Amino acid sequence: MKKLFYLALAALLLLALTACEGKEVGSVTDIVKGVLEDNEMTSGSVYTSESTVAGEYLDEDMIASYYGSIVDAPDFSLIEEYCVYIDDKNPLLQTEIGIFKVIDSKNNSMIKEFIERRRDGILENARNYPSVDTEPFDNIVIETVGSYTYYVAVKENRSEIDGRLKEALS
């Protein structure tokens, strides 16, 4: 009888531990690449912290170019993982999707600030070129979920992509 009681107790503890366990998010690169594949977005470049191949990750110059300036750029030592898709091959319509996972969630505000600066810079530059379609950045989605900050600057399927990212990161 004691063995049965201890076996039932062990099963109950195992069930309780399983219920309390957080959902595993997985690789942000896999999440972004899945979104790109589902939306047939193939003409841009993917930059990921998973790569060690030059041109496939954001080096210091690229970080400053995309998300900051020569004197003020985000501190990527505070970022645990990232994946960014940037399609700037068509100068009249730029689209981007990115996810940044910070080591400490208090640094989400830094990431959000630099994404907003990127948006503002793109919109400012486009004012001189009326043929540029700024709709992706006029309606950019910038959200924070736990230790993740993501953004979606696309013309089509914005709500669906936003929902998918939010669900994957929750």
Quick structural overview:
By secondary structure, the protein is an alpha+beta fold. It has helices at residues 2-20, 28-38, 60-67, 108-126, 135-138, 158-169, and strands spanning 45-48, 79-87, 95-102, 141-145, 148-153.
Write up this protein.
Strands 1-2-3-5-4 form a five-stranded antiparallel beta sheet, with helices on both faces. The chain has 170 residues and is α+β, with helices and mostly antiparallel strands. The chain contains six helices and five strands, in the order H-H-E-H-E-E-H-H-E-E-H. The chain has one domain (23-169). Helices cover 43% and strands 19% of the residues.
Q: Give me the side-by-side strand order of the main sheet.
A: 1-2-3-5-4
- On the 0-100 scale, what is the average pLDDT? 87
Q: How many helices in DSSP terms? A: 6
- Radius of gyration (CA) equals 20 Å
Give the termini separation. Answer: 43 Å
Secondary-structure-based class equals: alpha+beta
* Total count of strands: 5
Largest sheet: 5 strands, antiparallel
What would you call the shape? Answer: globular
Give the ordered list of helices and strands.
HHEHEEHHEEH
Low-confidence stretches: 4-23
